[in-house]
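cache lookup: miss for this entity combination. No prior model stored, computing from scratch. Input as submitted by user K.M.:
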Amino acid sequence: MFILAPDTGLIVMVIQIHPITKLPMIKPGDDLAQLIYDATIGTDTLRDGDILVITHKVVSKAEGRLVDLSSVEPSQAALNYSAQTGKDPNVVEIVLRESRAVRRMAPGVLITETRQGFVCANSGIDKSNVAGTETYALLPVDPDQSAKRIRDRLKELGGIDVAVIISDTHGRAHRSGEVNVAIGTSGLNVLRDRRGERDLFGYELRVKNIAVADELAGAAELVIGQADEGVPAAVIRGYTYRRDESSKAVDLVWPRDKDLFP
Amino acid sequence: MFILAPDTGLIVMVIQIHPITKLPMIKPGDDLAQLIYDATIGTDTLRDGDILVITHKVVSKAEGRLVDLSSVEPSQAALNYSAQTGKDPNVVEIVLRESRAVRRMAPGVLITETRQGFVCANSGIDKSNVAGTETYALLPVDPDQSAKRIRDRLKELGGIDVAVIISDTHGRAHRSGEVNVAIGTSGLNVLRDRRGERDLFGYELRVKNIAVADELAGAAELVIGQADEGVPAAVIRGYTYRRDESSKAVDLVWPRDKDLFP
């Protein structure tokens, strides 16, 4: 959005972030894009060039990526990790199935590399906002593909071309607290590479390569996090992203051999 | 900001982010709060309850935290690290002076724990947007104190009570690209602790503790990064932060002995 600064007449770029309210509870098999389209059509909350940020939980639910703990038989490895972390062996079993490596362990903590490559707690599996006392949501199998499907479906339904980001809440090395990051994207370049640009004094920038998809996911969380638990998506308007059909959220993952904190 | 959703009559919370344009080039000794006040007064760009995000570079400049490379004599340690990383020995000397530990080294890369405790490349020293071909900006000595001084001065000048965040651009473990994070704050709780809240199904959240100061710093970068290099600050409106006079950005740093990726 552009606003006219009152004193100078300068046009100033403003970013707006608003929640998508009115989404129903999502169930396996739901057409999430259709539900988002229905919740936004006629309200001007979704337009060409907007960025739609969806928390992965509703994507996982719509895709039926749910596991019931009682259906799980812990392996010997799960029992071992359970003994070392104090975590429920059935939960650990699911975490291990969704991982390709365990990166760190501590009492109550199991940090893995997920099948998709993300380094996060418990392979991203989570109980919150999932129906059933024993049911956990897993990450979408391929969140970048999920984002692309939702984006393509929105184009089909309303001719709207938006960028789509699927977000998750990750802890970090070095810093406490969690932030939302992008685990699936479609339609935008996840990085804004400023290397080669010149600074105020003509000096060439050599290191700036901003993970804008993560900053966008975090910005959306500010709206989602202060809304009711029933708001799983937000729209960012006024950010000029670089359109890109091949850039993906998994591009933001350091391969383990390049990660300085493997 | 609240807007009325046209079809439902529901009031929806919207977050707005806008840049502070019209700031002059900052020099040592400048009263940065006065300059921000002058640039925003009468334009409705700064109001009670807003969050003012300032990139640390202008804070460092105003505080005179600048070092000329030619004034530096590299120590033996700096020469050693320089040989191992291929980095300029005088730059390495400044990096070491601003650090309390070297965390990682690789060709072209020196990741340190800064005197303030942040884990980042080159102790946060940086050449970009600094006048003088050999001049580097250091981090403010105590960015939380810097944020408090700016906040107090804005109160004094205009009776405006805003939260202040001083941001820097950090790389991350596990994920490529950089994001803006909070290195100094005043007036807000840097975390939004949701543990103990109930989810949609009454399940108690056990792990959500969101580093909102970092998400706010990243959100502001979206505006700052797409503006000209001359825009070093942005205002976030519509985010209901928890007021807190004692919470600090350094609270977001894991002590090394608790960091799982030390």
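stored under new cache key. Chain A touches chain B through 83 residues (CB under 8 Å).
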